[in-house]
Every structure is written in C-alpha cells, then in structure tokens.
Design a protein that fits this description.
alpha/beta; globular; single chain; 41% helix
Length: 256
C-alpha cells in the first residue's frame, strides 16, 4: 500500500523543499517507487529536480480543478524510480477558484486515490503557509513530517502547526499521524542549535528523528543545478544525512 508523507511547516526557509526533494531521491535510491508532488505555487521542488516549468503542458493545478487525472500529470526525473507531479504559479488560482466548492479540502486526496499501489511512497511538498493547499495535503496524507530549523523562533510557530494537524485529524483525516520532527540546518558550533535540539527532544521525545541535517553549502547549491544532493555531490554530509533519514523511515516501516 502506498504511504503518503506531507512535508509541512508554515514558516519559510526551514528546509522543507530541500527535505522533500532529497528524501524522495534517497528513498528512490533504495529501490522504492517514489512520487514527489509539488503542492507549492512557487514550484521550487519542480525546478529543484531540473524540470523545465515552461515546457510542462499540465501541472498539479489542472488535476486539482478536475481537468486532468493524476496519471496525466506525472513526469520523469533523472532518477528512474522517482517521478514528479510538477507545479507552477497558476496553482495560486486553486485557492480562489475553489473557495466556495463543497469538498474543496479533499480534492488532492481524490486526485491521488487512483495512484494507490503504483508507488511505495508519495511525498507532498507543501507551501510555507497553513493554506487550503496545505490542508489538502494533510487531508490526503498518512503522515506529516515537520522540518524544524535549529534557530531562534523555530519552536514558536510549531504550536500553530500542531493545532492545525489536530483540527484536521478531528474533522477531515482521523488517521493522520506525525511521522517525526526533523532537525534541519543544525550548526554544531552554536549553542542555539544545541538548545533547540534539546527543547525538541524534551517536548516531542521519540517523535524527533535521530537523523539531524547539518548546515551544508552543497545542499544549498544543488537546487540551482536542478539536482538532488545525491546527484550533485553524493559524498557531502548533506547527502549522507538524507540517506540516513530514508533508512530511518524505512526501518520504522519494517518495524526495526
């Protein structure tokens, strides 16, 4: 059965899209069939995997408004077992056009339902807001993965995100679970990173992934070349971190 992970945090610049891209690529290198769905109108996950937005005929927007099936939208990436449903700026229109529609929160879930069993994992990259697109992603997902930036104010906005998850569990998706909190942009040279990690551990306990993603220049460079870190610099600490995260997720699924 396909497992759907939603990578979400309403704060921008916390490593959300970096995580969606590189976790997808890492899981694919372990032989898993992966679909990355770019739910963000900024389309950073699309360009980060080297997909030319101007050459795409149909995007997630066309699926969300019922003009295309999910299968019609899937495009290839450089990694054979990693497929993508791309996005573009017109996805902004979804929120406005669907404002008065019944069932608008479940449109992504219905779109992806036809793909059940075709992929081992579907990864949803959310916009940096608690918008209708994020609500759709959480309603469609089995798990939420939360990247947490190891910087000041990182924990402050988390209560709002957790409240949103709780509301969605109550009203739209009772099976939704938090997969884990991923500590990202960790700088071992600073006390602040250590303090944020300590606070996260004390509050979330086993929900915090053992894997920590450090600050890494190569991770920041890779999207400008349209490549996941594994194809840009497989020897970097960033590549190792996301491989470790993929192993951790696979290990949990296998009950190890």
């Amino acid at each position: 059965m396909t497992q759907i992970f939603c990578v979400a945090n309403q704060k921008g610049g916390v490593g959300k899209t970096t995580t969606a891209i590189n976790l997808s690529a890492s899981l694919a290198t372990f032989g898993k069939r992966i679909l990355l769905v770019d739910c963000d109108p900024q389309a950073n996950a699309t360009t980060g995997l080297g997909i030319d937005k101007s050459a795409i005929v149909r995007t997630l927007y066309h699926g969300m408004i019922g003009e295309a099936t999910a299968g019609d939208l899937i495009v290839n990436s450089e990694i054979e077992t990693l497929k993508v449903i791309p996005s573009r700026v017109e996805l902004i229109g979804f929120e406005v056009e669907m404002m008065g529609e019944n069932g608008r929160e479940t449109m992504l879930k219905r779109l992806l339902a036809e793909l059940d069993g075709q992929f081992d994992y579907i990864i949803l990259d959310c916009p940096p807001s608690l918008s209708l697109l994020t609500v759709n992603a959480m309603t469609a997902a089995d798990f939420v993965l939360i990247p947490l930036q190891c910087e000041f104010f990182a924990l402050e906005g988390l209560s709002q995100l957790l409240d949103t998850i709780k509301r969605i569990k109550t009203s739209l998706n009772p099976g939704l679970k938090i997969s884990g909190i991923l500590l990202a942009m960790y700088d071992k040279r600073t006390n602040l990173s250590y303090q944020v990690a300590q606070e996260a551990d004390s509050y979330f306990k086993e929900k915090v992934y053992k894997t920590v993603v450090p600050r890494n220049v190569r991770l920041g460079e890779a999207p400008s070349f349209g490549k996941p870190i594994l194809l840009y610099d497989a020897a970097s600490v960033g590549a190792k971190s996301y491989l470790d995260l993929a192993k951790e997720i696979l290990g949990r699924d296998e009950g190890q």
